[in-house]
Amino acid sequence: MTALEVLDPGPLTTVQDLGRPGWAHLGVPPSGAADPSMLAEANALAGNADDAAALEATLVGATLRALVPGTVAVVGTRDHDGSYALDAGDVLETGATVGARAYIAVRGGIDVEPTLGSRSTDLLTGLGPPPLARGDRLAAGNAPANPTSHHRAARGEGPFRLLPGPRDDWFTAAALEQLLSTTWHVTTSANRIGIRLDGPPLERARNDELLSEGLVTGALQVPPNGLPILLLNDHPTTGGYPVIAVVSTRDLPRAGQLKPGDELRFALA
After folding, report:
1. Could you say which architecture CATH assigns to the domain 160-268?
2. What gap in Å lies between CA 95 and CA 76, rounded to an integer?
3. What is the dihedral sign for C-alpha 112, 117, 122, 125?
4. pTM of this structure
5. What are 14-47's pLDDT values in tens digits?
6. Residue 15 burial by Cβ neighbours in a 10 Å radius (0-12, 13-18, 19+)
7. Beta strands 263-264 and 184-190: pairing type?
C-alpha cells in the first residue's frame, strides 16, 4: 500500500533496516542503520518489529505527506520526536536532527524489494533502494499482529571504548598513547562509509605497504597522513591501511551519531 509521498527528502535520507551481514567475502558491506538502537526505538513507537525497514535521515529529516491514514514515528529530531496518527493529506515535517541521524518509521515498515536479505541502502556499492528524492512514493507493509512494546534507546556517554589491533604493532607505543589522550574532532568528511578525524598524526613504526585485508565496522584505519578514519556501516570490506584499533560494538550506535564539529575521546575497553 502506497503510504507516503516525499515532499522534501532533506540532505540524505535512505531506507535502512538491520543490514545485510555475512556477505563481506563478496565485497558487500553490512550496511543497515548507523544507530540500530534508535531504529529499534522508532519501530517500537510505530508498532513494528525492531528489524522493520525505516527511513534514516542525515542532519535534516524529510518532509512527508500521508497518502492514506497511518501511524508514523520519529526519533532523533530536535522538535518532532513522537508517534503521529496521520490522515490522508497530512504533512509531517521532521526537521533538524539532534545527532547526525534520525529515524522515521511507518506502521508496517517501508516496503521495498529486499537485496541479499535486506532493504537497506548501501552508499558504497549502490545495493538497495536509492536515497529518497522529491516526489518518491513509499509503500508500507502489513501492520504486525503483535506490536512491539515501546522502549527507549540507551544513550552511552564518555570515551569510545577501543580494542587495540589488529595492526597496532605497525605504530609506535607513543601513537597508541596519543590516540587515547587526544580530543579528536569530526571533520566535514563524514558519511555512512566513514568519518575522518582531525588531531595530531599517529606515528608509524613501519612504513612498508600492508596487503589488503578484511575490515569491520568501527575499525580505526590510519592512512599515510596519520589521521584515523572511523569506519561505519557502508565501509569497504577490505583495505590496505593498518587498523590501530576497533571501536567496541557497544559504542557503534554512538559512532553513527557523530557529526562534523563533534569532539570525541577514546579509552581502552
Report:
1. Beta Barrel (2.40)
2. 10
3. negative
4. 0.95
5. 999 999 999 999 999 999 999 999 999 999 999 9
6. buried
7. antiparallel
Contact 112, 119 (CB under 8 A): yes
What residues have CB less than 8 Å from 126, skipping those under 6 apart?
A: none
Cell triple for 269: 575497553
Map out the domains of the chain as residue ranges: 2-139, 160-268
Sequence-separated (6 or more) residues with CB below 8 Å from residue 158: 265, 267
What is the C-alpha separation between 200 and 186, in angstroms, rounded? 13
Residue 27 burial class via C-beta count within 10 angstroms: exposed 0-12, middle 13-18, buried 19 and up: exposed
Rounded to the nearest angstrom, the gap between the alpha carbon of residue 52 and the centroid of all alpha carbons in its chain is 15
The CA distances from residue 144 to 57, 106, 126, 148, 253, in Å, are 24, 12, 29, 9, 26
Is 45:30 a contact under the CB 8 Å cutoff? Answer: no
- What nine digits make up the cell of 150? 515501546
Q: Is 82 exposed, middle or buried (0-12, 13-18, 19+ CB in 10 A)?
A: exposed
Q: Look over the chain and give the mean of its residue pLDDT values, rounded to a whole number.
A: 95
Selected residue with higher pLDDT from 50 and 16: 16
- Return the DSSP state at 114: -
Task: Output the pLDDT for position 149.
Answer: 59
Reply yes or no on whether the pLDDT at 98 is more than 80. yes
Dump pLDDT digits (tens) for 124-183: 999 999 999 999 999 999 887 766 655 666 667 899 999 999 999 999 999 999 999 999
**Amino acid at site 92:** L
Q: What is the DSSP letter of 171?
A: B
218-234, pLDDT tens digit by residue? 999 999 999 999 999 99
Residues listed for the chain? 269
